[in-house]
Amino acid sequence: MERASGSRLDRWIDAYAARTRGMTASEIRALFAVASRPEVVSLAGGMPYLSALPLDVVGEALARLVATRGEVALQYGSGQGDPDLRERILDVMAPQRVVAHPDDVVVTTGSQQALDLVTRIFVDPGDVVIAEAPSYVGALGVFRAYQASVVHVPMDDDGLQPEALTDTLLALRREGRRVKLLYTVPNHHNPAGVTLSAARRPEIMEIARRFGVLVLEDDPYGLLGFDGDPHPALRSLDADGVIYLGSFSKTFAPGFRVGWAVAPHAVRERLVLASEASILCPSAFSQLAVSTYLQTHDWKHQVGVFRDLYRERRDAMLQGLEDMIPGSHWTHPHGGFYVWLTLPPGLDAKAMLPRAVTHRVAYVPGTAFFADDQGQSQLRLSYCYPTPERIREGVRRLAGVMEAELEVLSTFGPGLSGAHDGSPPSRPRVQFPGPDLT
Amino acid sequence: MLSPRVLVLAGGLSHEREVSLRSGRRVADALRDAGCQVTVSDVDEQLIHTLRAGHVDVVWPLLHGASGEDGSVRDVLELLGVPYVGSVPQACRVAWDKPVAKGMVREAGLLTPDSVALPHGVFRELGASRVLAAMVDRLGLPLMVKPARGGSALGASVVRTAEALPRAMVDCFAYGDVALVERYVSGVEVAVSVIDTGDGARTLPPVEIEPDGGIYDYDARYTAGATEFFCPARLTAESLALVQRVALTAHAAFGLRHLSRTDLIVDEEGRAWFLEVNVAPGLTETSLLPQSSEAAGLQASELYRRLVEAALEPAAA
Fold first, then answer.
1. What three-state secondary structure class fits A40?
2. ipTM above 0.95?
3. Which of B17, B183, B261, B306 is catalytic?
4. pTM here?
């Protein structure tokens, strides 16, 4: 009998680097495809509500930019970023008391690239990165790509727990493991929706100092607080012990992909070299566009517009949850985009997602925000994009989904194990849900 | 028709939207290569207006799951009198419902694993533990649990112990109201595509599927490289002929048109077990029908163009 040789539909299958293992098509990601349909209330995506921007004004400014400074805007730029923009970034950070020199700022392609650069220059395979539990999915993806070992530390309503951080660091020290970074989103956390209290900030910095751990402070939501002035950034407490990451993605527009890092001098030098090796330079056009916007538009007022809008949506979300969702508990964010909800016992957010999609509501299952097996009973709800009416409708649908799922669960009895023996071999937990869901 | 105007319908609201969009893009590209004028559209409230405007000669519904495969979108196309590629609504309705389809192929003399299909309500009324125990007693272990309707292995799992069965049922019911619990047949997993471009149904070379993890789940289906395919399948000539006969029998028994794909298992004794038939088989870059077509020396563009022409042929049925 003639036997044909097998095909894998990818002639390079044996050539991929080990670190790409686990980059597979994912059932969860596929379900998110439905979330883009207008019938679906998507409480999944972390997309800023750009309709609140004066798009005509932005458009005119961009046209003027190309017409008057096109030869610069469309040219290569400096690896560290446009000096004028770096100067303006200092103003943006001022409310959080980040004091720096423009030379300390490295402009990046979104703060996501800054995450990549920092991890690249500090983390060898197997090194430990401490991250909150839960943590930003985009950061976990980067840490995984560099084969870091992520160790989670729990949070409460005041953010990262200092005692737990100390215990974790002590345990890691006892195990002889090398901790390279403490990654934290101190303000209006993604996905947890909590903020590190002012009282805890010096405490966390003191622990980091004591254990010699560099803090990676990721702060895209710092200016989007709903109540009063923002807390001082961790960077303001120890300029030499913190790399601060900022972004225009939430306060202006993610389409420009402009973020930045503020780092201690020596670190900054390496970041610039790493960035040049990676992308030569960030987009000059995007930088000049952001710079023009900051210069010609009352950006602080615009941030206030966003704050008011997101506050109203946060209220709609919390009220909806209060009115309609039984047996669960959730965080009460004072800014940012997200509520973190813990389901009634037995419910599994990932297993429930297909039912949610059938009922035309989408969320991100909690497992996406952990590098280990946590998060099964939790989910992230975003209130940034849908209108308050749609948010309420989404929560109503979610309530129905939970009710139906609880009924099925009660039918088949409590104590169901998380995975059955016939399930496929377990794959790495971090599955990047896609750029519009981060 | 020199350059037929084809509307590829892709997307939809089903769990398989992503797969459908991928199939749609591939088919649209291939048809353009074959000289067709192609537009790709989602199913939305503009669709009927578009179809009534008269700028479309033929529709190719590449919708997977729910309205795409249960015949309902095709019912609307019939209402509007628009020719389309693929099977008529009634045939879809039967083939789409796995328990009904299994009953039908059994009547047609084919083997299909013993199974039971039950809605959630029955477990609730009769007591899940009792019903599950009866299932295990009757069907044995391991079991295959899957939604009675739906594809791409979404909600499907192999269950090897009785303790694991409740969790599999809960996962399955997240995708639909009726679960099909089937005796698990181990063997060689094979897919046989059938095409009919107006000159009679014929099979393409059977594809053997060998997923790395042993289970042909969603990831294994749609990640290039995660599964090894053999085309033709590494079966004896006798078994190859058998699986082709099964696919043709199923295609005919359901009254399918233009294209279908039958999934089956060949066990150690060489018996071919029908699992399901797909009226809108996936046509993505990792899908099975395009692989078979290529193995048969048939360019996708050429095959798809001929299917479009068959749909335009008034006598096609």
1. coil
2. no
3. B261
4. 0.91
